[in-house]
Amino acid sequence: MADKFKLIAITPETTTKGEIASVLQIIDSGFDYVHIRKPGYNHKEMADYLCEIPHEYYPHIKINDHFELAMELGVKGIHLNSRNGSVPDGFKGEISKSCHSIAELSDINGYEYVFLSPIYDSICKHGYVSKFSAVELQEAHKAGAINGKVMALGGMTASRVAEIKDYGFGGAAFLGYLFESTNNVELYKRLETIINII
Question: What's this model's pTM, rounded to 2 decimal places?
Answer without folding.
Answer: 0.94
